[in-house]
Each structure stands twice: as C-alpha cells, then as structure tokens.
Protein: DUF2029 domain-containing protein
Organism: Streptomyces griseoviridis
Amino acid sequence: MCAMPSAESTQASAHEPEPVLPTREDPVARSGSELIGGPLGRFALTGTSWWTPVRVIALLAIGMFALGLVQKAPCYNGAWFFGASSQYTKACYSDIPHLYQGRGFADGLVPYFDRLPGDMPYLEYPVLTGVFMEVAGWLTPGSGTIQHQEQWYWMVNAGMLMVCAAIIAVCVTRTHARRPWDGLLVALAPAFALTATINWDLLAVALTAAAMLMWSRSRPIAFGVLLGLATAAKLYPLFLLGPLFVLCWRAGRWREFGKALGGTAVAWIVVNLPVMVLAWDGWAQFYRFSHDRGVDFGSFWLILAQNSTDPLTTDTVNTLATLLVLLGCAGIAALTLTAPRRPRFAQLAFLVVAVFILTNKVYSPQYVLWLVPLAVLARPKWRDFLIWQACEVLYFLGIWMYLAYTTSGDAHKGLPQDGYHWAIAAHLLGTLYLCAVVVRDILLPERDPVRRSGDDDPSGGVLDGARDVFVLGAAARPVRQEAPVEGPSVDWGSGAAGGPGPSPADRSL
C-alpha cells in the first residue's frame, strides 16, 4: 500500500525554491543537451533519482580527470625520460615526475629541513604543498629504476589530485543551492582536465572551493580555517580576504569578517610556525624564489622582455607588478562600494584572483585551475565560459609547441617566438573578456544570470539579502519614488539595496 504524502510535507515542498535548470535558461546549454536527449521537459521529475546533481557532476569530474591522465600517456610511457622535446610536442609535460628526483624525494630528503644538492637549495613550495608532495613520496615504492619510481610518484599524485578535483566539483555544485547544475562547467572544463596534473595547484583550489562553500553556509570560522590552509598551500587564496573585507564593510558585517580573518590567521600559523621555527631558510625559500625569479612563461612581461633590447630588471618588474595589483584591488574596492547593488562575493573573488594572475611575472598554464571554480560561481553562462576555455586550451598547446621549438635544435619543431606571443595574448585577452563580463554584471545587475533567476548572493552567506550600511557615489543617493495615489505605499528601504527589495537600478514602478 502506497503511503500518501502528509499535508506538512506537501506544504514544505511547495515552499522549496525551484532549481534553476541550464537547459531552460541558457541557449548554449540547451543546444548542447541535444547530445544526451534534449532539454529537460516541463513535467520531468527532478530530485527523485539516485542520480542527483552532486553525484552526476562528481562522476563526470572524475571521468574528465581520467581523460586528462590518458592525454599524459605518451609522456608516462617514455617522453618524460627519453626526450626533452617529445614531452612538449605531445603536450604531456608535468612537473611532478621531474621533481621527484630533483627535489630529493627519491633520496628520502625531508622538505625544508634537508638542503638539496642542486641549484635550488630547498623546496620552493609553500608548506602544505610540500606536505602533500612528501606524503606522495611515502606512498611511492622505492624499488626499481628511477624512471619506474617517477612513474609511480606521478600516478600516486594523480590519484590524490583526483580526489581534489572531485571535491572542487562537489563544492561548486553545492555552493549555489538553486543552481547545482552549474557544477557541470567545472566538471567538463577542458583546460581543467588538461592542466590538472601539471603541478600541485589542485590542493589549494580544493581548499578554496571548500572555504567558499562554508562561507555560503554562513560559517565564517570554518571558511577562515579552510582559507588559511589553502593559503598555506598556495599564496593566491589570501587575496579573497580583500573583497570580503569591502563587502562586509558595505554590509556592516564586521563580526563575521573578524571570525573569518581570525580563522585564516590561526590555520596558516598552525601549519607554518613549526617549519618557520625549526627550518627558517627552508621555509623562506618559496618567498625568496617568488621574489627573485625573472619574468616567465605566459605573462605580458615576457612579451615586453623578448621584444626589448633593454628589458626591465627583476626588481623593477616586481615593483611595477605590485603597483598594478594594488591599483587593480583599489579599483575592485571602488567598484564594490559604488555599484548600484552590492556585488556578489564570487564575482569579486574571481576578479581579484584574475587581477593577480594577469599582472604577475608568470602566468603558467595550470593557473587556469585557480580561476575555473571562481569563474563558474561568478558568471555561470556556457557561452562566456567556453570562449574563455578555448583561449586557455589554445595557450596550453602554444606553450608546449614553443618549448618544443626552443628544445629541438636546428629542427625547429613547434611554434616560434612570435607565434607564442600571440598564444599569450589569446589567453590574456580571454581572461580579460571574462573579467569585463563580470564587471558589466556588477554595474548592470539585471544582466547577472544568478540575480536574474531570483537570487541575491547565494555564495555570500551572511551577505545574502543583507542591507547596506555604507555606500559611496550615486548608489548612496537612490532616486526617491512618489507613492501611488491609491494602494499601499512602497518602502524601498534605506540606501542601495544589497538584498531584499530591488536595487536602485530596478526601482522604476
């Protein structure tokens, strides 16, 4: 005998927000869905199957990651070991097997404590990434040839990084509760699969995605702890505190920001302090290396240097890059405080990390991993996301073809310098394009796909639906509306609306 739903459950389900389905609101997603049977029908039942969005997206992310491993197969079978140029012509290069021996893991050296025999005195990675690398070294069999050990080391790291990739996809899927299928953008991102095992960046990306999820659930301490751990694995997550500070300033949410800042500081100190005290020189190697390295692949600084007879010194580039980052952050802060409606946290998180990457001395191909989850949360539109991804895939091929050209001797197999500069320009312009679209969404909230579907700031946690207490510019002086002759008066609230009620740009009756 079938049990009938109770009145309470029926009433509760009636009040549950309807999920946003990309095949109904996004033309590109609707067209792409024809490959798997077309858009979801009007009377389709959702949420009644084992195949929930989280499970589907996690499995697809693992599947795409596995395809990325297959793409590295030519190198795994010999190109890493028997030919410098073949690992570039086959576009399967990875730092992981090369650093197994190059950073002392093959010899059992302890990162940060034991001095390395080569030009690099100590491991040049933040502490938590060094721990990740060391754990993979413990799990790598120490028998067989060095090539066999390097293959194992890469495979062990790949398995650990696959877990990180699944965590990223799940966290993004669950951050915007009404938009779970946006996680498909992460799972199916081609540049994500191609660059996932070049280096160890996915550890920091996974911790950052988990931190964003915690903030969306109004758990600032958990957010801070995870962000502190992410910063202990890579520097870029620290930049998320900047836009969060300005957003909390505009909304008057100082208590929550203080908890987030405190959690970040404590988590970072707990990880770093023991190594700082016991092995200062090894701990500081990451910061020395970051300061002393010259301009490198993927950056506009490299184009300038390779087209100049008198290139800028490293110190000058450091100073100019720092000034550009500060100017970009100041611009983001001004945008936050003057926008007609308080920007969403994910929008500003994407912008600040993009500014850091675009102005940096190096824009490595795996840095796209930093941006993918933030881009999905900031601008979940398939067209714009795929345009950007196409630029990044073009650059992924361009850098390896350029390195093949420089390492193939007189054969000159690959892409010459001028062609590589065009590849750099493509991925810089692709990132700038996505930044411009996000800025447009902030200035014109009605163009924002998240807000157009009825949400305010689903990744904003305590900021979601909060009122503003500090606004600058025209947003602080909303146009007053005359009350209608008949009917109840309309109260738009004070100041620019950050949550309930329409923004100044939407206040026409």
